[in-house]
Amino acid sequence: MLVALSVLAGCASNKSFVEGKRMLAEGKAEEGFAQLEQAVKESPTNAEYKAYLFSQRERTVNQWLAQAVTAQLNGNFDEAEAGYRRILKIDPYNQRANSGLDSLAMDRRHSKLLDDARALQQKGSVDQAMALVGQVLADNPRHREARILQRKLNEAKPRDTLASPQLKSALSRPITLEFRDAALKAVFEVISRTSGINFVFDKDVRPDLKATIFVRNSTIEDAIQLLLVTNQLDRRVLNDNTIMVYPNNPAKQKDYQELVIKNFYLANAEAKDTANLIRALLKTRDVFVDDKRNLVVMRDTPEAVKVAERLIASQDLAEPEAILDVEVVEVNRARLQSLGIDWPSQVGYGLLTGGTSTQTGTVTNPTTGAVTPVVTPGVAATVASGVINLRNNPLGLTTFIANPALVLHLQAQDTDANVLANPRIRVKNHEKAKIHIGDKVPVFTSTAVVNAGIAQSVSYLDVGVKLEVKPSIGLDDDVTIDVGLEVSSIVKQVDFGTSTAYQIGSRAADTTLRLRDGETQVLAGLIQDEDRRSITKIPGLGDLPIVGRLFSSNNDSRSKSEIVLLITPHIVHNLDLPDRQISEFRAGTESSIGGMGAVVGGVSAQSASSPVAPAAPAEPPAAPAPAAPSAPAMVPIPGIVPYQSAPPSQPAAPAAPAK
């Protein structure tokens, strides 16, 4: 009874095992592993079932893990989650799948935070966007998208044009000023009363400076900058509510102007080129280049550093890249026909090599008196292979035919050969890529060296298919390719003394192509055509009509080879152009990089040294309301007469002094 039960259990487990293997082969992984686990459960001691289950499950889990990780990296979170959960169905305790689900939840949260940060960036809430990006970087400091967004936010974040420490928000309050030939320090006193900012003047600031300024609804910061620039003055922030005003000359700039140091770690641009750019455009003298780290360090004013940041952001871009699918085909066609009879072509008379004889005496004819030598035969003369002995005499002289065989040629041969090379190379923009498919042939050279004899040297010659390409990727996804193709082969070897050289046959073409992304161009026509015909015949007999074919051998051969090149460019990525705010911006004036012209816009001012008649306002400015001190205001003080326009026919009436 026990034996019968064990046999039935074995049959059931074998059925589950076979069924599980079939399902795995059909791609039904979950059902197949369920059957295999059932087979192992029914036969726990069967090592074959266990080994197959574990090996197949490990292979499948690794494959699914790779797919899930790829989907997660590409941002396909739903697909990645489905992959991880599919793994847990066949391997519930897989640590990598559980960790993948945990990291997936974090990635989803990070993606939501980054989306919110981008939305805030579009609304102009840079500080709030920076806070969200900071949360992502706190969890994963190497998060690529978060770091890129942080860099963009830093570039777009409005910066105070004054050096640190920053002034209070009073600088951004609006103000209206209308003064004509007023004392400069008195105008600054008005601004001080309105904004609460303290002004300290250097001892070299002239007390008689006058200012004429007409601004409406301008920020206090812009108004201060206008007054300073039009009177050849500059400023330095001393603390949160105090500004030092000093003459804008080289001596005072060295004393008061604050400099900052900025390190630029470059990802794509060359450090030397970037340093030359900074020196040429910003006139910065203090620039250090570290080629090892691809680092540029500059020291200059905060305004110049800000301009340098935008310049480098527009230059430090990844070079475009393209993949070139190249197919080189050499088509060889050869036709050979050999028909006829090879007749013996040499008849000789002489002493065969190897035959010897010895003269032992002479015999005299008593009648005639003639003397005949007596020759004793020695070693018999041997007939070489391929030689027929026609006649022998006692002296060993022989008539012979050197090539006696009659050879009938009946041969026709056709040969078609295609040599195909299909390399796939990735190359940067404006960089050369070389392909060589063939052999390196050694060439030996002997050189006479004084007091040293003969020196042997070897060099190598490239023979085969050589292709050189240089792409230039345009912004319109057109690829201009400089193509150089050469196909060479050894024609014959040339020996000169102890040196060896080769005669090389070559076919070459150089051209420039302009192709669209994915367009294929075929270059053909590099043809080598060779036609040969040779006849070997017996003189006279071979020239007879018809029967002359019996006394001749004809050899006709024709060979033709053609080189065909097919090239297809595929752009991997093109130049990622920066935003307009990076590629186009105001850079200040010739004497002040990133200064007045880059900060102030939409306002006008004039100095006392070059007065210009102001345009008449549409209506007199209203006095500020006491309940709204932050509103734009024209603030009068005793001794200062605000300007008010009047009709041309009447003189301008002065305003009543403030009480």
TrEMBL record:
- One family from Pfam that matches here is Secretin
List the residue ranges of the region (Disordered): 608-659
Q: Where are the TPR repeats?
A: 61-94
Pro residues bias: start-end ranges: 617-629
Q: Which InterPro entries match?
A: Bact_Secretion_Sys_Channel, GspD/PilQ, NolW-like, NolW-like_sf, Secretin/TonB_short_N, T2SS/T3SS_dom, TPR-like_helical_dom_sf, TPR_rpt
**UniProt biased composition (Low complexity):** 630-659
**GO CC terms:** cell outer membrane; type II protein secretion system complex
What subcellular compartments does it reside in? Answer: Cell outer membrane; Membrane
* PROSITE patterns, alphabetized: TPR (PS50005)
**Single Gene Ontology BP annotation:** protein secretion
Domain (Secretin/TonB short N-terminal): give its ranges.
197-248
Protein family (similarity comment): Belongs to the bacterial secretin family.
Q: What is this protein called?
A: Type II and III secretion system protein
